[in-house]
Design brief:
Shape: globular
Helix content: 25-40%
Strand order of the largest sheet: 2-1-3-4-5-6
Order of helices and strands: HEEHEEEEH
Strand content: 5-15%
């Protein structure tokens, strides 16, 4: 065999081995990327939880919640910050990071129509990646003028979550689950299939109830441990 042919054969073997290794490593690479996105999402909700707690301290327990659940941040028609939008600039210093989950396929920071650049612009609306529980999803009997304190509803423990609609572009974490911010500031991953809103449940009443039920025992156990620690001499 000539030298040129031998060299070509060696190159082909090396390329073949490299291709096989790449195929073997690809699932691991995807898993690492997904893990990084989940970690970023968890940090985002942690930051949002801390900001909400500071806001509540300054406003006597009240939170910046709209009447119904949504992921709206800025309403340019009313020229008004809403929901998590009210946390900027006083409580969130870098909202362009905290408002957007890197695993969200649709409501992204760089969306040309309603991403971060639309925030604060008259006539435009800006949306984030996270679905915020509305006042009426705490208590359906409330009126627009009713006083509302989230602490008055201890059984309503899920406050903010990934906005996720299965079978659509509005999907986070590849439909494998969602991150949820609870009333105590803790963040948990709820694996499974969740739809934040649908034609039959546009503001997520059933969605929030399912999350309340899922994490109720965990929050109760934490509160019980905290109470026992406080009583201890």
């Amino acid at each position: 065999m000539k030298t040129g042919q031998t060299f070509l054969l060696i190159v082909l073997v090396i390329v073949g081995i490299a291709s096989m290794l790449l195929l073997l490593l690809l699932p691991t690479t995807v898993s690492i990327q997904e893990a990084e996105k989940r970690l970023s999402c968890l940090k985002n909700l942690k930051n949002i939880g801390q900001a909400l707690q500071m806001y509540a301290v300054d406003f006597n327990g009240y939170l910046p919640l709209e009447a119904n659940s949504s992921n709206l941040l800025w309403d340019g028609t009313r020229r008004l910050k809403v929901n998590l939008g009210q946390l900027y600039p006083g409580y969130l210093k870098q909202p362009q990071k905290s408002w957007y989950c890197p695993a969200q396929r649709y409501y992204r920071e760089n969306h040309p129509d309603f991403g971060f650049t639309a925030f604060g612009v008259a006539g435009k609306k800006a949306y984030g990646s996270y679905f915020v529980r509305g006042r009426l999803q705490f208590d359906e009997s409330l009126t627009p003028d009713s006083p509302f304190l989230p602490a008055s509803y201890p059984e309503k423990i899920a406050w903010v979550a990934d906005y996720n609609i299965l079978g659509s572009e509005v999907c986070a974490h590849k439909g494998r689950g969602i991150f949820v911010l609870l009333k105590d500031g803790s963040v948990h991953f709820a694996s499974g299939t969740y739809t934040s809103s649908s034609p039959a449940d546009p503001y997520g009443q059933l969605f929030w109830k399912s999350l309340d039920s899922r994490f109720a025992s965990r929050v109760q156990a934490k509160e019980k441990t905290s109470a026992e620690t406080t009583k201890a001499p």
